[in-house]
Specification:
It is built from six helices and five strands; from the N terminus they run H-H-H-E-E-H-E-H-E-H-E. The protein is α/β, with parallel strands linked by helices.
Amino acid sequence: MELRQLQYFVAVVEEANFTRAAARLHLAQPGVSAQIRRLERELGHRLLDRSGRTVTPTEVGRAVLAHARAALAAAEGARRTADEFTGLLRGHVSLGLVSGAATGEFDVVSVLADFHDAHPRVEISLTEDTSDRMLAALRRGELDFALLGLTSREPPPDVALDVVVDEPLVAAVAP
């Protein structure tokens, strides 16, 4: 049994006519008829009553119709779900921020707002913590990204990094 056979069957039932169903599907009527006959042979029952002016489903055809529609809807749902993953349209991103990272030279709020506008189905979670704890969380896979402060000029092992802000840290003391 193929999805296209179910699609043809549903179209014929909805149009109550092979010719109109074929036109709706942009196919030749003999091809639609042949696929319906194959489906009927495979199921071992006539699905359509062709004896009147209009085509109507048989008792078995009415019972099969609901399953055919459900199968087509499920296939379309699977297609839509797969399409949503193209271009990161849905998912989850976890971001860690060191205290004070959301202010100053790097506008985290605007970056996150732009990302959300471009990918509205991607859930964003924020964590604020110390640089050392966020580095450990990155290594454990608990965070996807972190904005943190480094105390060494050497990059930490096992993580990739890009410097987004380079500001010296100074100590201010009374005379």
